[in-house]
Amino acid sequence: MHALAAEHFSNAKTDEDFVKVALKMHVKQQDEMPNLKDIKKPKCEVKAKWLLDIAKKDFSRMSLDKTVEVYNTAMSLALPGSELLAHAYANRSIVLSNAAMYEESLKDIEHALKANYPDNMKALLFVRKAKNLFALDPTADIEDTLNKARQWALKMNDKEKSKLLKNLEKIKTKKYKKPVKERDNRMFVPSSPNDNPIIKDTLAAIAIKYSEKFGRHIVATRDMMAGEVVSVKRAYALVVSCEYKLKLCWNCSKHCWSSVPCETCSNVIYCSEKCRNVAWKDYHDIECSILNGLLSSIHCYEDISLMSLRLFIKAIKEFGTVKALYESVQKIDSTADLIMKSFTDGIYDDKKYASVYPLCRKPMNLRFKVQCALKALQYMYFMALTSDVFGKKMKSMDELGNYEYAVFVGKLLYHHTVLSSTNMSAIHAPSTNSELLNCGGLLNPLESLYNHSCDPNMDSIVCLDMSAFITLQTIKKGEQLFISYGQEFHHMPTPKRREELQNIRSYWCDCPACINNWNPGHDFPSAYLIYTNQIYDLNDNAENLSKAANKLKLGKLGQMCLQFLYKILTCQFALRLLKFIYDYNHSELLDYASNFI
Ligand SMILES: C[S@@+](CC[C@H](N)C(=O)[O-])C[C@H]1O[C@@H](n2cnc3c(N)ncnc32)[C@H](O)[C@@H]1O
What we know:
It contains 23 helices and 12 strands.
């Protein structure tokens, strides 16, 4: 269809032209469109039971990761509150406990107890709970838990009861593996400054400016030190790639061990009830049925298309109806000032849709435009069939074709797809080696206003759905704050860097390093990436941090600074920052750190 389509689109110029052609094509070829009959029922206990049996029987042949993924899938298919779901929680708690993930196992036990777990088996859960608590802390008081196990043992038959009571006696004498804990790096993300009266939740030291050469950009309104936290933001929207949707939390992208499934669809899981509730309130209540229709029919989605849909849903949530959204978009379109376009009630608030809609788009070729238009229409069709976002559920492409806002919605989805391909930052899956695997993307509107420099004076660190922006060099009042759009530019000659950015990003780089023609051999203050390889291959923990500090030959004071930084930042980030400042701004950092040590 895509090859044929190019012909139809040959005269299309504007977004509207592309959407109208795609709409016409879809209406004509509606027999080819998936219909309601193809849409699967969200939950399926038979399949859930089958998968649960596989997880139970084959766990010794599968990696922990794979076993947990099979459990996640089984649980996503089980009915909420069912005994099957309770069994799945209970069985996964054994796997997690055996893998020394005692905290995760405890969470599963609580879920099994809250669900419909049979009374005659509850004693087993309390035994496991006592074991987990003891393995985590041998001084913990586990008497209450042991008593609960004894009470529930009364519901067992005599043989099982006597076996359980014997096991109970051994809990405090057994040796357990050292607890394995996954660190949630968000704990180490510093809190966000929020003293800027114009740009919400940022440091007062920055402002948004516009120039012919750089478009919108961010400048310092006072002299800044290296190491200043400019903003810490939760992403406006985050999407998890299709192959990770039953591994990572749909809301924050945390790797899930003791996950909870969506209670309505069987497509996504969450790291906690909190994330599930946030997602449901923010977007998944609408997205759930659309995603189910989509995945039943086309089995897979692309990150930028899902992001496009998510932006649309978030906008609908903000404005209430398609009509109100249409009016708001018209208002933004009619505002001539590029900076003011993205303001809401006189301030720049990147939790509002106005900060998203006017983001820049890179030029695209015809093929990509055609794909974006066809995808936009496909997603709009699923929205029409499975949700009542357009006032009521629709039954056919014809009905959608006659909908008064069809072109507007198609255009918006098309615009979001292009905008996402320009502005989304990748998120990375946890991996056992140093390889960085993309597992989704997030959109952070303020980040999209930073221009690129081959010698950036800012760095961002992404911890799940949070992004922190920190200055890496001293920045003088009036100078621009730059991030790097790629990572390895300092070792390339100027023409090569500029050519590469032109090829990938479609603009000629006018950053200070390019304008001043800095070439390899020049001292790029930001050439931190020389060290990143050493840092990426380290696990993010304190032991490795000190190993890395030794590698970097930091003196005693340097090591102390590193420990201090580690308390507020992630290991990787603390190291990068320290190494940097150690080389270029040593005395400043030491002055700063001495206030805290
Ligand atoms: C993500 S946007 C950054 C914000 C943008 N200036 C705006 O007005 O929305 C990326 C675009 O900014 C411009 N840009 C970013 N870095 C630049 C640089 N070093 N030199 C020239 N233009 C740059 C290019 O037009 C690029 O396509």
